[in-house]
Amino acid sequence: MKKVILALLIVFTMTAFFLYCGGGGGNNPTDGGGQDAALPDGGGQDASLPDGGEDYDGSVDHDGGTVTLFKFGVYGDSRPPYLDEFPGPALLYENITKIMKGLASKNVQFVFQVGDYMYCKGDQDSGPCAETDLTHFLLAEGDGGYKGPVFYLMGNHECHYKTEVLCPNENETPNVNFYKSMLLSRDGKPHSWFDFNVNTSKGPAHFIVGSPNTMPYGLDDGGYDGAFFGPQADWLKTVASEDAGYTFYLQHEPQADESDEGTCIGAAPLYHYMRAANQNVTAYLYGHTHYYKKLSKDDKGDPVANEAIIGNGGAPVDYCTKDGGSESDCRTVDGGTKLCSCSNEVGYGVLEQLSNGNVRVSIYKAEGAGHDPLIDQWTITAQGKAAN
Q1: Within the chain, which residues score under 50 in pLDDT?
Q2: d(Cα 360, Cα 356) in Å, to the nearest integer?
Q3: CB burial of residue 107 (10 Å; 0-12, 13-18, 19+)
Q4: Residue 283 burial by Cβ neighbours in a 10 Å radius (0-12, 13-18, 19+)
Q5: Ordered alpha helix ranges (H), the chain
Q6: pTM for this model (two decimals)
Q7: Domains along the chain?
């Protein structure tokens, strides 16, 4: 009888040990016979990675960085509506904060703000206005909770409230001096034109920032031949054709006059030189006009697939269409989503490198709730051609 009881105890102990340790290929993931419950859908892709598990690991600072794939944000034109008056409406402050909340929720690695943060005359008495406008702008950005680097482009308002006035020495007005001390200094850049590289698993990405409002007077507005000079021109000649897997060019004013705002005489020469020097620019990105618009033609009337104005950052609206997207500007995609290549809605853009090497451009309406709706979405190749 004692032998029977002892045998039963041995069997019971071995069975308990077997069940506890997951013998026979149970659900312990270390045995290779089961699925990790922490991963959704039976151990598939990490749910924190968007759109099928793209990997955006890595980091970028103001000198560049190294990432698996890049993902960056763009927005611009967040100036107050009233000349030399502040505070502006609470809605402006709120819109800037919503944009930064949206960019934070998209987990972008870095952000470009494409210019126009203040609305001050630019005369010698404009210092208090410039300082106040920039202080409120930075407070509104900070309330959005985004912690990554922001690159601040110079807009025409950072020189003078009149678009045609230039600041080639970058010290002519209180506007440009406060822009340099309060924004550009955060980027650690000596000039409002600069470039940097981000290394990715698909090759280096080169980011080039031009500054039309600091080009010298006397330029030929129709092009650059024989009239492209000055320190910024000399710099661009050395970086425009740098060999890279991806090249992005940004400047405040678009290559053509898109609204009643007018454009700067320095915009076209910089753009034309860039186009001539590098045939494989991934995207050209602008602000200045206060809406989003995917451009279909350049200033010569030639078709383009890689240029966009993302100036819908909260400044008084310039209407690309009265209803924010006429039927000719909009299309319906799978699932019934309406996308528009022209919109007056306050928002921002996100450009993300995909594992197939293409770049997806997504434009979002800023609602600040973490689920901002799409305004538009399109995909380009690394060489700036339409991918779909």
Answers
A1: 1-52
A2: 11
A3: middle
A4: buried
A5: 2-20, 40-43, 50-53, 90-105, 127-142, 174-179, 185-187, 231-239, 267-277
A6: 0.84
A7: 1-44 (no CATH), 55-380 (3.60.21.10)
